[in-house]
Amino acid sequence: MFGFWGRLLDINLSTGATKVVEVPEEIFRKYVGGRGLAAWILWRELGSRWEFIDPLGPENILLVLTGPLTGYYPGIKLVVSGKSPQSGGVIGSTVSSELGVELKSAGYDGLMLRGSSEKPVYVYVDDDGVQIRDATSLWGLGGLKLAEALNDLLYKDMKIERGLDTLPSYIYVGPAGENTVRTSVVMSKHTHAAGYGGYGAVMGSKKIKAVVAKGFGPLPRVSNWGEVIELRKEILRELSNRMRIFRYWGTTEGLWYTGYVTSSEPVRNWLEEWHDVRSFSHEEAERKCWVRNLWSDWGCPTSCMKLSRVSEDARPYVTDGPDYEMGAYLGSNLGVFDIESVVKLSALADELGLCGIQTGNVIGFAIELFERGYLTRDDVGCELRWGNTDCITEILHDIAYRRGLGAILAEGTYRAALKLSERVGVDLLKYGVQVKGVAVGAHGIRSGLDYPQKIAYAGSVQGGDHTSTAGTPLKSTESEAFTAFLDSAVICFFNTVDTVKLIKYLNAVTGWGFSEEDVYLSGVRILTIQRVLLLLGGPDVFWDPRIHDDNPERFYEPLTSGPKKGEAPRREDVKIELIKYYEELGWDELGVPKEETLMKLGVSELIREVERVRVRINLNA
Amino acid sequence: MKIWILRDYSRCVGCRLCEIECSLRHEGIIWPAASRIRIHEYIYGFPIPYLCVQCDDYPCVASCPTKALSVSETGAVLVNEDLCVMCGSCVNVCPGKIPRMVNGKKAVIICDLCGGNPACVEVCESMGFNALKLVRKPAGEVVKAYLTNPHKSSRDLARKLSVF
Ligand code: SF4
Ligand code: SF4
Ligand code: SF4
Which atom of ligand 1 lies at the shortest distance from residue B13's CA? Predict the structure, then answer.
């Protein structure tokens, strides 16, 4: 086996028992790693009772997985997964974290965390195995405070136990994750997050404050070392030449570009997707907030991250960029166009361990309700209006600590909309810009200038996830099958190069001899499992493809401003596109995988779950 | 000629490509723990490249009971793998605790300036970061300033920018 150790650590937080699980090469060949491996593990372990499993209960399994290219391909990502408390399906959530390399260096490809602990703990993994350590003193902390406390602790341990001046890597949750907020994230290095999926809440429900690892060995062997070295050099050179976009401005550039140029930025809960506020931009961020304009993670020459800081009352607020998604969702989407306020809100979201996208989305939704009179000052405690940064700051905290209205918003846009609809007796779901429980990322589809695929979100197995969108043709980088593959090989999307070269790289590491055909086949296999588990859903949400395989209502309202004023997709076209896409995937017109497809993909046992899906959405009648 | 690696902390982006290239050059594999250069990022966002400074008085070399350490033409400390018994005396006397004893290696590892052609500098430069630069070795004790505890350096840098 090359590129993998074939070993996962299976850790039960309820009993403290740990064991090593061997994963045969054949499984990696079929599912590649990362997201694919997550789909397979969750299906095998929980599939038979999927719809009854509470994502926030001890039965759920939190997965922390690497891929075959972890450490070898420039840049670093890690996949966090489990049954999602947002969609009820499986989301392969990615985060920049050296933890992947540390795990590999310690001799493991990933971790399975089950059960739940009674008291706060952190999981510590090194070459000698696993320890479950007390984390009482860390509970409640986030951001740089958490980093300082945990780094001190780990540094001292390392010094005493090994005599080394070195720090392990880790992922952790902030207060929001501890309080099982569905819009919480799994954090790394105080500004990075595995956002989509709500896995911060899963980690919090298990009382895991952090997962720490330090490895002292080399990465697993590769199949063709000479070729890996050559390709690596070539790709490093290529990436370091992509100076302007990612290196110089990072994704911060999107604040201006995605709004003014491609008109696809959330502005006031998507009432608009265009703005011409010149100061809501990367240049302004650079001028006013950047304290470091180049910051990379492990092995990455792209260096897209920037470090921003603002001070208020002598207290620093620190975040990256702000990166585009956070900046747009906590900025323009809330009617906040002042870059320093955006940095502050992003930094707060980071500190609280909240997802900028999901939380910015649900707050935008709440502001719209307030403006429309469905929420009042009594409900909120302050004037929740567009651009009221102080009130938004309050709400961020209320969500993280589940206080007052915050307790409802902490459930995410979809669930909050259902609850509030019930309360006021009006259907409020139409103001929620989400798909299958997952708020839509900060890239609209109406203008067609940014995300040209009208089924991008409607057909995704990860709902509103802008990093995993559906599209045709199937065998192209437009399709979700390709993304599923990238997230399984675990490569950073910004560091991708030509597909042929990527496949060559994978083969040089693994020796699998994958063709392009194999890549898409594995992608479709992964999507098929994800789709079936998503349609099983539960326990509190279920998706009917006839209703929920669709864009949010708002995306059918014509754009009210910008270069594409008046544009909106037509629902009929979306339906037609979807059917075409499903057909390419070997799914029926409702997107339920056909039996022959399961056979072809070598997952015929999935038929049991498919049968249950058919019963649930009444297809057999 | 005595050469030296000048490190500009304010330019280091924390990419660790230097660590990777160092382990590739010496071990032929990617083995971060066996890199002779280390990036310490105690305060995230403020990485500090940390490696041997080739002290003017070479206390490590003087302390070695088996004479496993010597100074090369470039000024680097060379380790004779056959003589090193991993006693740890060089680690103890090194003001920066630079020499490393890594599981799976039979001798300590110390930066060898890659025989005059440092792999770390090459990658740092070619990626356009220029945090590491090859220069003529400065005379005297001044080089030891770069042995300040990297965790402290990281903190100081963060403090200077009021991040912390
Ligand atoms: S290669 Fe240069 S920029 Fe990157 S971590 Fe090393 S010293 Fe810093
Ligand atoms: S820094 Fe340490 S290893 Fe390098 S010359 Fe000085 S004492 Fe020796
Ligand atoms: S000069 Fe060579 S041995 Fe020294 S740290 Fe750089 S790559 Fe490693």
Answer: 3
- Looking at residue A373, the DSSP 8-state letter turns out to be T
Task: Please give the full DSSP string across A102-158, using - where no structure is assigned.
Answer: HHHHTT-SEEEEES--SS-EEEEEETTEEEEEE-TTTTT--HHHHHHHHHHHHHHHH
Query: Cβ contacts (< 8 Å) between A72 and chain B: which residues?
Result: 30
Neighbours of A153 (CB within 10 A): 17
**Residue pair A70/A53 in contact by the 8 Å Cβ criterion:** no
CA of B137 to the centre of ligand 2 (A): 14
- The ligand 1 site (C-beta within 6 Å) comprises B 12-18, 39, 47, 49, 123-124, 129, 131-132
Pick the CATH number of B3-160 from 3.20.20.140, 3.30.70.20, 3.40.50.1220, 3.40.190.10: 3.30.70.20
| Neighbour-count burial of B99, counting CB atoms closer than 10 A to its CB (0-12 exposed, 13-18 middle, 19+ buried) | buried
- Give yes or no for B152 touching A (CB within 8 A): no
Return the DSSP state at B80.
Answer: -
- Cα A148 to Cα A506: distance, rounded to the nearest angstrom: 38
What atom in ligand 1 is closest to the CA of residue B21? 1
Interface test with A, best of B21, B24, B39, B44 (most A CBs within 10 A): B44
HEC sequence for A314-326: CEEEEEECCCHHH
Structural domains present in chain A: 7-214 (3.60.9.10), 243-439 (1.10.569.10)
B87 touches chain A (CB under 8 A): no
Q: Give the pLDDT confidence of A296-346 residue by residue, as tens digits.
A: 999 999 999 999 999 998 899 999 999 999 999 999 999 999 999 999 999
Of B15, B43, B123, the CB nearest to A300: B15
Structure tokens at A248: 């110089």
For residue B19, the ligand 1 atom closest to its alpha carbon is 6
Pocket of ligand 2 (CB under 6 A): B 52-55, 58-60, 77, 94, 96, 98-99, 110, 147
Phi, psi of B147 (to 5 degrees): -100, 5
Model pLDDT for residues A137-193, shown as the tens digit of each residue = 999 999 999 999 999 999 999 988 888 888 999 999 999 999 999 999 999 999 999
Name the token pair of A27: 């499984």
**Do A295 and B38 count as a contact with CB atoms less than 8 A apart?**
no
* CA distance, residue A400 to nearest chain B CA (Å): 23
Residue whose entry in the numeric block shows the structure tokens 């930094």:
A347
- Give the Å distance between the CA of B122 and the centre of ligand 3: 10
- The reply to whether residue B31 touches residue A105, judged by beta carbons under 8 angstroms, is yes
How far is CA A572 from each of CA A84, A431, A551, A578, B125, rounded to the nearest angstrom?
30, 21, 12, 10, 54
Spatial CA neighbour of A211 closest among A152, A149, A150? A150
N-terminal to C-terminal alpha carbon distance within chain B = 42
Question: Which amino acid does the sequence have at B127?
Answer: M
Is the CB of residue B36 less than 8 Å from the CB of residue B22? yes
User: Which of B33, B126, B164 lies nearest to residue A216, judging by beta carbons?
Assistant: B33
At A237-260, the pLDDT tens digits run 999 888 767 899 999 999 999 999
Q: Has this prediction a pTM greater than 0.90? A: yes
